[in-house]
Specification:
- By secondary structure, the chain is an alpha/beta fold.
- It folds into 2 domains: 4-15 and 84-212, Rossmann fold (3-Layer(aba) Sandwich); 17-79, DNA polymerase, domain 1 (Orthogonal Bundle).
- Helix content is 40%, strand content 16%.
- It has helices at 17-30, 49-56, 62-79, 90-99, 112-122, 145-153, 168-177, 191-196; strands at 4-7, 14-15, 85-86, 103-111, 130-134, 161-165, 180-184, 201-203.
- α2 (49-56) packs across α3 (62-79).
Length: 217
């Protein structure tokens, strides 16, 4: 039976796209750049906030990206929970996993302080063993370093780990870490991306994840 479930955050546990898009548009506006429709951000997020700024304004210099990042964080730190919503079925899934003794962790490319704030805001009653976001000394996903860091906090055989995410970045992270992956279809990316990225499993409802607790990669 699986002993540890590692969840991506954006597009997996929470629908954060409107707040991410609003803060990016704020940063763009502050620098005099045109804004993007919120729907465009589904394909800009996933590799950390710096990459988000680079995709939102691809012609910007590194120095300008730094300024965009400052504006983004100033806005997002205040507004990161304004319109973000928990996906239906996620609280029930987390509670059921916990009741069966499965430990929970979060691996996200969202910067650390925002990840901690958002998880504590939306899941105050859920015990996560660790929430690991983007920090300066660790590469972002799909580099598997964040998974290895989680396993350092929660020692678990890789065969007993389930990694759940909504994008090719997540599936590649799981593959590089040699842990079993579950791609979810309710997030920001299409199911075709998950299948192309060789997800071990693809689900369209959180409750479906429970059936993989006894699977082996």
């Amino acid at each position: 039976m699986k002993q540890l479930a590692i969840f991506d955050l954006d597009g997996t546990l929470l629908n954060t796209i409107a707040d991410l898009g609003a803060s990016t548009n704020f940063a763009l506006s502050e620098m005099g750049y045109p804004e993007h429709p919120l729907t465009a951000y589904n394909f800009m997020v996933g590799n950390g906030v710096r990459k988000l700024m680079e995709r939102a304004q691809p012609d910007a210099s590194p120095e300008t990206i730094d300024m965009l990042l400052d504006h983004f964080r100033r806005h997002y730190d205040i507004h990161c929970t304004d319109t973000t919503q928990i996906y239906p079925g996620i609280p029930e899934l987390l509670a059921e996993l916990s009741s069966r003794g499965v430990r929970l962790a979060v691996a996200t490319n969202k910067y650390q302080s925002a990840a901690e704030k958002i998880i504590s805001h939306f899941f105050p009653e859920i015990k996560f063993e660790t929430v690991m976001g983007q920090v300066p000394d660790r590469p972002v996903k799909p580099d598997p370093s964040v998974v290895f860091a989680i396993l350092g906090v929660c020692p678990t055989a890789k065969r007993d780990v389930l990694y759940i995410g909504d994008s090719a970045v997540d599936m590649e992270t799981a593959r590089r870490a040699c842990v079993e992956s579950v791609g979810v279809t309710w997030g920001f990316r299409p199911v075709s991306e998950l299948r192309k990225a060789c997800a071990d499993h693809v689900v369209s409802n959180p409750a479906e994840i429970m059936k993989f607790l006894d699977s082996q990669p």
